[in-house]
Amino acid sequence: MEAVESLAELLDEREHLLEIARWRFGSPATADRAVQETYRRWYALDPLERAQIAEPRAWLAQVAGTISLDGLEPDEVDPLVHRFALACTTGDVRALRATLAEDATVITDAGGNLRTSPHPLRGADQVAAYVSTLLTRRPGANLTTEPVNGHPGLVLRNRTQAIAVITLTTTPTHIATVYIVLNPKKLTPWHVS
After folding, report:
1. What is the C-alpha to C-alpha distance for residues 38 and 171, in angstroms, rounded to an integer?
2. An example of a Gene Ontology BP annotation on this entry (predicted)?
3. Is 123 left (phi over 0), alpha (psi -120 to 50) or beta?
4. pTM of this structure
5. What are the Cα distances from residue 87, in Å, to 5, 95, 96, 100, 127?
6. 156 CB neighbour count, 10 Å cutoff
7. Domain spans of the chain?
8. How far apart are the first and last CA of the chain?
9. Cα gap 138→173, rounded to integer Å
10. Are 60 and 13 in contact (CB under 8 A)?
11. Is 118 exposed, middle or buried (0-12, 13-18, 19+ CB in 10 A)?
């Protein structure tokens, strides 16, 4: 019975931390990453340090609420995603193209609210030019790398409002598909407070 109570407490604690991180980051996938990092920091403490923490739940909640995801260990595709994001931010079409597979595809979902290509565009040159035009040099906008529905991705925000959410599918060496959501109705969950 005691083990079951401990497991229930552990699951309750994790859900509590996820709620804090979701509130902070606005993205379930990013929240999960923040909670993983919170637990990593807890277990990195030596037993004496942990024993001196009077309220472990409060300590974990504080870490989850103040954690910065900058500088965390990237997964295998993060360097490619970061190169893509940097090329978008700087408007470097050549560098953007270098991240793309030759047969790369871009698909845009604007929900009929913006003029975008009605059909997927194919080929690294076309995709690079299109993505560069759509995402680069937006005054006041900030492009961040974030997991999107379990895939590598980016979120373009103007302060707290999401402007675009980009999902990337990758091969071991290149980006194969760029899926850009511009539909305001689908962007609401990506706004941050």
Report:
1. 30
2. DNA-templated transcription initiation
3. left
4. 0.59
5. 50, 6, 5, 11, 13
6. 25
7. 2-66, 78-190
8. 41
9. 28
10. yes
11. exposed
Q: Which two tokens stand for residue 55?
A: 């309220």
Do the Cβ atoms of 68 and 139 come closer than 8 Å?
no
Is residue 47 a contact partner of residue 91, using CB atoms and an 8 Å limit?
A: no
Query: Which burial class, exposed, middle or buried, applies to 1 when counting CB atoms under 10 A from its CB (0-12, 13-18, 19+)?
Result: exposed
CATH of 78-190, one of 3.10.450.50, 3.20.20.80, 1.25.40.10, 3.90.1150.10: 3.10.450.50
- Taking alpha carbons only, the member of 139, 143, 134, 137 closest to residue 162 is 143
Collect all residues with Cβ–Cβ distance below 8 Å to 39 and sequence separation of at least 6.
60
99 touches 169 (CB < 8 A): no
Q: What is the pLDDT of residues 132-188, one digit of tens each?
A: 888 876 777 888 888 777 677 888 888 888 888 998 888 778 898 999 888 888 888
Q: Is 112 left (phi over 0), alpha (psi -120 to 50) or beta?
A: left
Give me the residue label for tokens 């509590």.
Answer: 16
Residues in the chain: 193
